[in-house]
Amino acid sequence: MTDPDMMKTFQKNLADQQKFARGWVTKNINKELYEGAHADILTPFLEDDQTQKKLIPSALRDIATWHMRHAMDTNVNEKLFPDERLSLGGLYTFWYQECAHAIMESDDPAGYRLSYRDFIPVCTMLALGWPNHAVRMAETLFDRWDVQKGGNGAVPWETFGEYMPWVAIKLYKAWRGSDEVYEYEPEIDQLEGFAPMLEKLLDPSARMFGDALAKAADFHVKGCGFDDYDVVKTEDYWFFPVELLAACRIRQLRGLDVIDVSHPLFDATPLGRLHDPLPVPRDETLSKVLPLFAKAIGGNLDLRV
Question: Which of 231, 267, 221, 266 is nearest to 248 (CA)?
């Protein structure tokens, strides 16, 4: 990426992300949301395993956001790899999805629905080095893809202009060797700058994949923004390119080489690089909440991953 104008945009995005991340973690209201998730939802539920059980997923989502935003702050402002925060954020993201799915499968779905963007965290699981979690999350999401009435699976992808969820799906399918084609699924070449990476994902040549990965990184950088036409619309992913890291992890899992690619995106922050798999943390709150939640909703939650 040598375009001077692009470098200016890149630096501006980095500065914006630094301000956003630091501002978020210092706002008292966000701390109150995190603490409220524990005090107002999880603690009462742990006392009787019934109170506000339908809100357990939303509480887990708030806690996941808390940890992930702290990880972003550490990443862009302290330039440190936020392993503890990142692993906790990933773990709570995973169980939010599983618990929400369990409620969606119940007689009272309580307003929970599959979001089109929920496929992106499958890449996050791979970036963390948690393939079992990635498989489980993807299977959970595909369950809802066809079942959910009026869900995003029944809407042409162009309607949303979202690239990354479909990149996540195509990466997953290539990794798992699935040839299933979903309704309204875009062709690889419709995903523009991500197409070469998808096409060379399992190429035996590490150099061929590396060249394609650099093109995808260019496309990622160009697409960071909040407008409808932007490719990477979620700020948390601007400097944590989970779709690119997932592609590298898939090659590792397939026993294929990944060469070191020089690119400003990969060098800007610690989360721009693929790291060794993180250990799955043991979290005391989850260890108490999840078994009770599974029991409270009738056992429709498999706690084994």
Answer: 266
